[in-house]
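During the second year of the project, the team shifted from modelling isolated chains to modelling whole assemblies. The rationale, set out in the original proposal, was that interfaces cannot be judged from single-chain predictions alone. As a representative example for this report, we include one of the complexes processed in the last quarter. Its constituent sequences, exactly as entered into the pipeline, are reproduced here:
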Amino acid sequence: MSAKFLGPFVSNEGNDPASNNFDVYRTYLNVSGTMEVYQSAADATDFSLVKLRKVSSSTSGGNFEFYPTGEEGDTLEDSDYGFTKWMNRNLINVATSSPEQVIIEPEYPESLAAVSQQTYCAPY
Amino acid sequence: MKTISIPRYRVLQNVDNDLKAGLAVGTWNSFDTTTFQLVADNSDFTNVQAGDIVFNPENSSTWAEVVTVDSATELTLNGVFSTTIIGGATELKRFSVVAPAVAFQVATSDVDTAQEWWSTYEVGDRIQSQGQQSRTLANQAVGTILDITIDLDGPNPGATLTVDMPMQTSNEIWVYKDDITTIPVNEISGIEFYKYFQSALGEITAYLYIGNGEYYRIEPQVFEFKNREDVLTYQPKFEAAIMNAISETLRSPWPDSNVVIEGSHGWQVRLED
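Output from the structure prediction step:
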């Protein structure tokens, strides 16, 4: 299956990009093949982390990790803030894209509750 | 297999320095783009003559000729020359002055080096000057070798490469031959583009993760930016160049298509596993 990339997802670590000091990541994930979208609870009630994972034969895969309200942010119990639905929507966008479209930008609906999205990409 | 590629450079050894004495680190105070008058209080133009070539050593894609030497610190040129690095926004005040006879030449007086150049390089190979500011790797002005001559028996043995743009030869000269980094696009699991600036130092890097589980990273990089604006200006071009190459090779009907990333000459490439 030919590669298709979903992105960019933008995350800013530390200082404001508008300042003289900045540290910004823009991330694309190859979402061809088997993908998983799931909440990853740090504990029984903390759903602040949502993952998009690329599954491989070694059962590990490329991970996107989203912290909907910031890595250290306050979160409501048992809530993923609509992030799993949002990710599924974007995966469907990729799956239904034309063969000519190989890089698909993510959609951000107004209903998405994200205020501080942190994105990490690490294929392990 | 669908692939994208980044050319790798070779460093030419024993290159003769073509800079005029006293003008190795020229910076101008003002350059009037209407009258083409260049004023450089820290320079001494005593040895400069009409016809000498003036260019930005970090982007010699355009250059000008000296028309008159108005004083020891003032020149009038016949036009403008590049005053920014390619992709950058910050005006560079550095300039080089080289005699026209050697401005478009890269030469060596070392016989062994001359023989190596003669046997290795050919007309059409791409060539690039690292420029005056040796830490800046954003100079994308890439020339082409137009002619190669070798003289082993004369009073001044050596070899000369004639190129299509002036080169400052006091720092490294890079030639692009067959060395290349090729990246299999379907095996890329994810890409992170990173831009950073702090304390007057910036970098732009792409982390291309290859494989899952057991993975490695290929990291094209341009670094040592001195200005925030140059990072902000160049990063979108850097990202677009990589993503456009990926898009082009994936959309090609040819199953083994390869696309060289546009403007990637001079990029540093690291492998991390």
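The helical segments of chain B are 100-103, 111-120, 228-251. The first strand of chain B starts at residue 3 and ends at 11.
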